[in-house]
Structures are given as C-alpha cells and as structure tokens.
Design a protein that fits this description.
Elements (H helix, E strand, L loop, with lengths): L1 H22 L7 H7 L2 E5 L2 E2 L3 E3 L5 E2 L1 H12 L7 E5 L5 H6 L5 E2 L13 E10 L1 E6 L15 E5 L3 H9 L4 E5 L2 H9 L5 E5 H10 L4 E4 L6 E8 L3 H16 L2 H8 L18
Parallel strand pairs: 1-5, 1-6, 9-10, 9-11
Antiparallel strand pairs: 2-3, 3-4, 7-13, 8-11, 8-12
The site of glutamic acid has 12 residues, from helix 5 and strand 11.
Length: 275
C-alpha cells in the first residue's frame, strides 16, 4: 500500500514535469521546426513609429514588421500565423535564449558581444547613432556638445554603451524604452535622446515642429535578425529571405511605405553577411 502510494506520487510528479516542460519557454526551438508547425513567434518593438509599432487597434506597423512578415512568408508561414511579442532592447538576447521567440526583428544591431549569446541573419538595414532634441535647441549639435547636458537612451542598447565608453563625462539617463525618453524630452526633464537615426526620425515625424534630429550619424548600426545561437539552418533560411526581399523590390517598397514618410532617405541596399 505504501509502495503503491509512492509509485503513484512518482508518476504524478513525472507527469507534472512533462506539463511544465511543454508549457515553459525552455524547449528547443528552431526557426524551421516552428515554421513547419505553421506558427512563428516574432519579437519586435512596440513603440518605435515607422519601425515597430503596436497601434491602438492591436495591429502592428513599421519596417521591421514588414521584414518579419516577408521572412515568415518565405518560410511558408502567413502573416495571420505570426504572433508578435514585445522585445525591449535589454530583453532581446534573453527572449531568444529562452525560446520565447523564434526570431527578433527589432532595430537590433549585430555586435560581437551579442553574437556570444544569439546568432544574426542580415544585415537587412544599416543605420547610425544620432541625437534628437527640441526644435528650438541650438547648442546641441553632435556628441561633442553633450557635456553637462542630460541625455537619455535605453538600457541594453548599443548607443547607451557607446556613450558610456566614448563620452564618459556625459550624464546618461537609462530608460527602458525610447518612447519614455521622448516623453521626457518633450516635458523638459532631459535635453536630448540618443539612438539610431532611423528611430529618431520616426519620433521627429511624430512631433513635427517640436523635435528634430541633429548632427551626422556617429556610429554604424547593422540591423540583424536575431535567432538561436546554434540554429544555422534558420540563419541560412532567413538570409535567403532577406536577399529575396531586396532583389524583388519588396525591401524598397516596405521602406517607402513605412520609414519613407519620415523623410529619412532611402539608404544603399544591404548585403547579407554569411559569417
Ligand atoms: N540598434 C541599437 C541596438 O540594437 C539601438 C536600437 C535599439 O535599442 O533597439 O541596441
């Protein structure tokens, strides 16, 4: 009787463990196995106009969203079968490592440090770090004019890291999202926001006459599509999809339909790096 009960308990615990594994985000994910099952989970930004934006009606728009959909379609998954998840800058590697997303298209720069935790297809776009200020600001003209100014950027982003490394005298206030930085800029709590020029152009277009992008871009940000470190097959498939998007003209069309509205000029076509 006693033995019987412990056997039953053991079996119960084993069943629980199976359920926990199935429900948790930790099972092995690969882009191709998810695509074969007919569904993909994609990490994007929710608050970056022109790039990745969740609209009040629950739809998603922006260049990154278009890239995410094009890649899914090439993998055989229609856009109705994509589940978008918010991927804030500081959480992107973790979301991928935990298998909570299949891939991330979220203004995500390819860097050697990040390549230790995730892999990247792309680049599918090349941007550069810049500055956003109030339209009436005249004394901030580039990164060398930031001393004594209050500068906002986002935790876990390459622009925040770059300021800490290259401009240590600048007062950097790290926020979780760029939209929070922009609100602080608008209410005067900070003097400038720094991140990639294409992101800042989207906010400047959202508040015309109130905000402006200043100076020349001072870094190179190669946007990649992040996926699991070991998923070489998925990386190759996504690289193929990016090349097809560029060659077919869909890349330029997507740019014109999204970021193009902000006045950001169409850049040179990207060349995928099959490292
Ligand atoms: N491209 C930069 C990065 O990956 C800045 C944009 C962002 O934080 O999403 O960190």
């Amino acid at each position: 009787m006693k033995l019987n009960r412990s056997l039953r308990l053991g079996a119960g615990l084993a069943a629980l463990a199976i359920v926990a594994t199935a429900c948790g985000g930790n099972e092995e994910r690969s882009v191709s196995s998810s695509a074969e099952s007919g569904n993909l989970i994609v990490g994007i930004k929710y608050d970056q106009p022109g790039l990745g934006l969740r609209n009040p009606d629950g739809t998603f728009t922006g260049f990154d969203v278009e890239v995410a959909k094009y890649v899914a379609e090439q993998l055989g998954v229609s856009e109705d079968n994509i589940e978008f998840r918010e991927a804030p800058s500081a959480q992107r590697e973790t979301l991928i490592e935990n298998g909570e997303v299949d891939y991330v298209v979220a203004t995500y720069s390819i860097t050697d440090a990040r390549k230790e935790r995730v892999s990247f297809a792309g680049p599918y776009f090349v941007a550069g770090q810049s500055l956003l200020v109030s339209s009436d600001n005249t004394d901030i003209t580039g990164p060398d004019s930031l001393e004594g100014k209050r500068l906002c950027s986002v935790t876990g982003s390459t622009p925040a890291q770059n300021i800490a490394d290259e401009f240590p005298n600048v007062q950097l206030q790290p926020f979780d999202t760029y939209s929070a930085c922009v609100e602080s800029l608008r209410n005067g709590a900070i003097d400038a926001v720094t991140t990639d020029d294409i992101i800042l152009a989207g906010y400047a277009a959202q508040y015309p006459g109130e905000l402006k992008v200043v100076g020349e871009p001072f870094t190179t940000e190669n946007y990649g599509i992040g996926l699991a470190l070991e998923d070489t097959e998925g990386r190759n498939q996504i690289n193929d999809a990016i090349e097809e998007m560029v060659a077919s003209g869909a890349w330029e069309q997507a740019f014109n339909d999204t970021v193009g509205d902000s006045g950001y000029p169409l850049p040179a076509e990207p060349t995928v790096d099959r490292y």
